[in-house]
Design goal:
Strand content: under 5%
Distance between the termini: 35 Å
Largest sheet: none
Shape: elongated
Structural class: mainly alpha
Number of domains: 1
InterPro entries: SKP1/BTB/POZ_sf (IPR011333)
Number of strands: 0
Protein name: BTB domain-containing protein
Organism: Zymoseptoria tritici (strain CBS 115943 / IPO323) (Speckled leaf blotch fungus)
Helix content: 55-70%
Length: 113
């Protein structure tokens, strides 16, 4: 399932060090967020969770160049807003600081407000 992500498909090519060991070190990534990502890879589902976690998941999807995952996170964010709860503060900052201008995540925040 990791090979669905262009990031991992490239990193695990045999010509790269990671491809030779079949190991990619992700020291800067939050273990909780990685657990949700791995869960999604195997089940295509995301749990109901805090906007701060969803924001980190979206940024992780950007890092891993995984549009299908980012779309799933956007749908999870929209699902949460059906309860009239919206991302603020840290979640908004996480998406803005972790994405490029024009990203779907930024556009979603603009559309929500």
């Amino acid at each position: 399932p990791l090979m669905k992500s262009p990031f991992f498909a490239i990193a695990l090519k045999s010509t790269w060090a990671e491809g030779k060991t079949n190991e990619v070190k992700l020291l800067d990534d939050d273990p909780e967020v990685m657990n949700h990502y791995i869960h999604w890879l195997y089940t295509s589902t995301l749990p109901r969770t805090l906007f701060t976690v969803l924001a980190k998941l979206y940024v992780l999807g950007e890092k891993f160049m995984h549009p299908e995952f980012k779309n799933a996170v956007v749908l999870a964010i929209l699902r949460e807003t059906e309860e009239d709860v919206y991302p603020v503060g840290e979640a908004v900052n996480t998406i803005y600081e972790g994405t490029l201008k024009g990203s779907l995540g930024r556009q979603l925040l603009v559309d929500l407000f």
